Structures are given as C-alpha cells and as structure tokens.
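B., you asked whether I could sanity-check this one before it goes into the benchmark set. Here's the sequence:
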Amino acid sequence: MATRGLVVGATVVMLSTVTIIGAGIHLKGQAFFQDSPKELVDEVWQIIDKNYVDATFNQVDWRAVRTEYLDRSYDSPEMAYDAIREMLEQLEDPYTRFMDPDEFRSMQIDTSGELTGVGIQLSQDEETGELIVISPIEETPAFEAGIQSQDVITQIDGQSTEGMDINEAVNLIRGRIGTEVVLTIRRGEREIDFPITRDRIEIHPVRHSLKDDLPGGVGYIRLTQFSQLAADEMRTAIQELEAEGIEGFILDLRSNPGGLLQASIEIARMWYDEGDIVSTVNRQGVAEVQRANGRALTDKPLVVLIDGGSASASEILSGALRDNDRATLVGTTTFGKGLVQSVRPVGNGSGLAVTIARYLTPDGLDIDKEGIPPDVEEEISEEVREEMRMDRTLIGSEKDPQYVRALEVLQERITAANEEETTSLAPMSVQ
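And here's what the prediction gave me:
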C-alpha cells in the first residue's frame, strides 16, 4: 500500500470530510454489486483478512465469521451494509469502519479543498462508546459555535447518542447547507446545547506570519491539518519566512487532528537533513522506516506547540522533531493515536477504512493511548481558551500563554545556538 494513500488522522470520522482513498484494490462495477450484494460482504471480509493490523482479529475466529455472513441472504445492498457493519463491530476497533456510498462521498476531499459539513472531528471511546470531539476545524460552523476539543456529544437534535455508532451519528449530523443541527455537549459537569448551521468550508491548512516578539523576528506557522495541500503550503511558509531573515520558528500544532501520513513525512523532511521520521509496523512485524532526505529548508531554532487536540500526524511530526533533538515541545500532552488506516473504495461506491499498522516515533515509542508529553508543560485555562476562540487574533499573541512560553523557550534555543556558533568560530590556539 503506497504511503501516500495512508491516513493517520485521529478521527474516526470528520463530519466535514477527511481523506484520500488508498490504491491497490480492484473496484468492481456498480451493477455487479447491485445484483450480488453478498460479493461486497466477501470483498470487505477479504480486505480485513489480508490487511488488518491484529492477526487475531480481536480473538475472533475470522474464518467462521466469513462462513456465517456468506450463509445469509441479502435482498438489497442496504442489507449487506448492515451486515458488514455488524461484522466489523466484532473487531472492536472504532477506526476500522464501512461507509455506504453517501457516507464515503461525504468523506472525500475534492481538488479545490472545499468541504461540506459542520467542521468537527470525532473519535469514539473504545470503552464507553462516547462520541468525543478531537477538535473543531478553525473558521468552520462548529468552531464558531464554540465546540471544543474533548467535548462529548450526548445528543444530536435531542436524540441520545448512548449506544450510537459513528455511522449513525454522521447520518444525523450531516445535511444540506444552510440547515441546522443542535449538538448537546457534555463539558466537565455541564451540558450545553450548540445550534450549528451546516455550510461549505474552504480550508487552507497553513497560516504563517512574521512576528517581532523577539529581536530579529520570529516565524510563526500554524498548521491545522495534514491535508493534500499541507506540504506545499508549509514549504511556501518556511521559504517566505526564511527570506525575512528571522531568528527562529514557532510551529503551532495545537488542535491539529492529523490527516495524511505522507504529508507528515514530507513536512518533517523540511526541518532536518538526517535521521528517522517514523516507522510503521504491520501485523507481520515488518517495519517500514521513513527518513529525512537531506533537503531541509532551514536549520533555525524551532519550538513546537502541542495540546490534547494534537493527534496522529501531528504526533508523528512532533515525535520526529523531538527525538531528533530538532525542536522543543511546549504545551500539554497530545491525544495519543498511534494507528494507521488505509481508506479505499469497495463495491458500488462504498468505502472501507482499515487499521493496517501501528507507527512508532524514531526512538521506537508507541504513543497510542499515551500521547507525547511536552518538554515544557504550559496549561491554558478554559477562560483564556474561550477568549481565543471568540477572537482568533489572540492565538499566537501576547494574550496566548502557551505562545508566550514558547517565545521564552525559543529565545533560550536561539541564545544557545548563537553561543555554539561563536564557540565553533573562535580561533584555535597553537601549543
């Protein structure tokens, strides 16, 4: 499976969409599966059998599962869809899931980078089944309404989400542009209703600016997701800021839920010339290691901002920069999602996301469910978080405590780098 087609987003579903479909699976004709939906059930079973990361299939007799589901009769594609979802539930893996044609279409990014939805990314707690917000996408209806990372969705338009799977939640939340959905959120001890109007969203994952908060200037880059556009936009940001002669960089990955594995690899290569980036390990234990390729765009001191909404591809990049001593991490512990999915078309326009590997940081750490702790911890209060949500110009400003702490750490790195350079340039004495 080509790395470019792999997904490491922390979300089980991005209600505004997510990903790029994987390659390598033969797509049979729509008419074939309309006539024989049982073939779709078998195709999904075969893909799981060959690729799923857990060779025990969650201690399930996977061959017996095939016999059971192929012995059934399916009078319609919808009956096959329900059977496939039931079959996949036995894996107890919220990241491996089937999408019918409507659901699959809602997940695909088009070439213009436009999305349709409310703009939130969700995960489902494996133990409680609760629907948890990883983060809202900036400048989307969900973000504007006040949805936050770690919010738990308890109701959708008044309907309880208890026992509800991701697919059912998606069907209830999505809808026509301009229509409204009310999400009831549990945040701490409170429950809050958020009316959100669905909309079309245009996303540019990278924003950058030259800041004069330190002598010589600081290059501030905020990366909101690892989409197809992320690497090109990051390259432009680094090059433009380098041209300004800045002294160092702050890379802001807060509330970045992840995305494409290849994007994280390409971006890591922009920051250092030598060293590992990430290794992915499949169920056979075969590790594929991605490394830097000598094409870094800068060697200026770097500080990375992270928090509980920084997940997956964000964690790959953060781990790579930390383990290679390229950056200092400031903020709070990341989300902790160390799994890789392949998303591919199946049957009559449907889709299948399959967990096919785990990833490890360059130091060999599996951060799944653990996250990456910061080198320098800096909490942020809910009051300040709300202020920054209401006024996004405060993010990356003197009113942003984590950014202010990052500036202090960056100044220390700049000073240390300058002292090292001075030492290396000092004339040698001859004895």
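One thing to flag: The domain at 114-202 is CATH 2.30.42.10 (Pdz3 Domain). Otherwise nothing jumped out at me.
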